Each structure stands twice: as structure tokens, then as C-alpha cells.
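Annual report, structural modelling task.

Input specification for the 1,3-dihydroxyacetonephosphate complex:
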Amino acid sequence: MTTQDIESVARALVAEGKGILAADESLGTIKKRFAGINLDSTKETRRSYREVLFTTPGIEAFISGVILFDETVRQSAGNGTPFPAVLAQKGIIPGIKVDTGAKNLAGFPGEAITEGLDGLRDRLEEYRGLGARFAKWRAVITIGTGIPTRFCIDANAHALARYAALCQEAGLVPIVEPEVLMEGNHDIVRCEEVTAAVLKSVFSQIQEHRVMPEGMLLKPNMVLSGKGCPRQAGVSEVAEATVRCLSRTVPVAVPGIVFLSGGQSPELATEHLNAMNARGGHPWELSFSYARALQEPTLNAWKGEAANVPAAQKAFHHRARCNSAARYGRYSKEMEAVAA
Ligand code: 13P
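The model returned the following structure:
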């Protein structure tokens, strides 16, 4: 894959009106999500749930790519078609989560470092053979008393950049995801300060590691009030702070920014994205790469029952359509009311 190919995949992932579905929950995370609907997490329940998502009729109008988990990229739909081919047949680009999770950072209580660099070059080659055209690596930054430390920010930024360089070498578009968590009592000002420091470190490492910004996507948190903060910033305040923070730290050469939802309600995640796109004037595409904000209503409608598949797919189609409208700044509360 040439440099131009990598850049064109990056641009296709943020094509007009489209965004990414993150369906790359690790075994631990999907178990937690299934527990919410009283469903056992088995290889087969995980497979059939992913089939519900990927075979939703018409979803390709709103979804450019899907991030898969290691188990899922090797699984198939009921008719025997491997999931990466199911997606590719609809013009949806298959991607893969390649980090192996955030672990406690030794010597830094309360902080985490993401693992997965050892053997990554070989794994990327295998995933490319299985059909993946892009990858994801998530770093986790916690806000609290005395944290994040500079050391934790820089260690995670260094790992993200090493991962991104290996992806581009392997012909895969890296999605670089440094997530500043919503958990905590901090206000939006503190979130903006920490997010800016993290992004500054990430792009400094990206440059040091000779990663082409044109052939990557950034997947950041939005700048929000902490979950436990008594004053919750409103939609326009969040949009303004997020765009300001990004414009100070993200090179214009990066084709797109695909937000994670981070535990916001599905509607609020859509409203925030919509408000940013309605403002206009930013140099990168502003899109979504949500897991929970796209899947919550789907999971709740499905509940593990075959009879609920049409309702679950309707819920997924609706959320994807709303977020697609938010890509143009054309989402409205009426869209929710019509669906209800
Ligand atoms: P959420 O949208 O649920 O935050 O998940 C996005 C993601 O991919 C986390 O790594």
C-alpha cells in the first residue's frame, strides 16, 4: 500500500456524512455490556450481536468503517461470510483494535499505560491479511488530585506514536486515541487544560516518530465537565471549548477527528457533535467513532433475542442516521421524536 492509498483510506473514513462504529469491545468490556441486558457473554452471543450490527440494512449510508476486536475479525455471519467481507461488500472499511489494554503504570498510582507494542509488526501483517485497513490504539488518562503526571502523558504519547508508525509501515491507517476520562469532579476548564497537554504531547511524538499526519485520524474525548462536577457545561460551551482545544493542538494536515463518546448519553454525544459542525470553519472533518453512544439503544432493544433483531437494527440505524446528520450540523431533537 502506497502513501496515497493510506491517505485515501483515512479520507474515506471521514467521508461526508459518515462516521465509524467502534465494535471492538474487549472480552471484559462486552461482558459488562451484556450483563446490563442479563445476557451471558459467550463466543456465540458475541458473534450474533456483532452480526445484528453489521447486517443492519442501509447502515452503509452513515457508517464508513467498523473497528473490530481480535475475536470478531476471525468470525463470520450466519451464512458463513467472514465479518470483514460482510462489511467490505457494503463498502464499509474493516478496522481492528490492536492495543492489548491499559494496565497500571508502575510507580504512578492511579495512572495507566497501554500495552501491546511487542510483536505488533507481525500482528499488523496478519490483520491486514484478514482484511483490516485501519487500526486503533487507546490510551487512558485520568484526571484526579495530582494526576495526570507529565510522565504518564508522555509515556502514553510515545506508545501511541510507536504504534502509529508501525501501522503506516504495514499499510494501515492508525486511529490515535488518547482518552481523557470523564470520571471525576473536575470542571470543563480542567478538562480542556489536560486534553490540550495530552494532544500537545501526542503530536510532538507523532512528529518525532515520522508519522504522516495526512495518513492518520485522531480519536479524542470531547472537552466536558467531569461526571461528578456540580456545574455541567452546556452544549454550546462544550462545542466551543472542544474546537478551541483542538485548533490549538491538532495539525491541519490531519484529515479527520473522530470523537469517542466516553459515557455521554447517545443524544448528548450527537448534540455535541452537531453543535461543533454547525459552527463550521474548522480545517479537519469532525466525525464520530462511538461505541456506547451508537450501541446502547441497540443492545437494549436486542436483549439477546432473535425476535428483537429488527427492533435492534432499527435503533442502530436511527442513531447512525442522527450522527450522520450531526456531521452536517443538521441534527435536531425532532429527529428523535419522529423515531420514537
Ligand atoms: P465509547 O464511544 O463508548 O467511549 O467507545 C469508544 C471507543 O472506541 C473506546 O475505545
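The pocket of 1,3-dihydroxyacetonephosphate is lined by residues 22, 138, 177, 260-262, 290-293 (CB under 6 Å).
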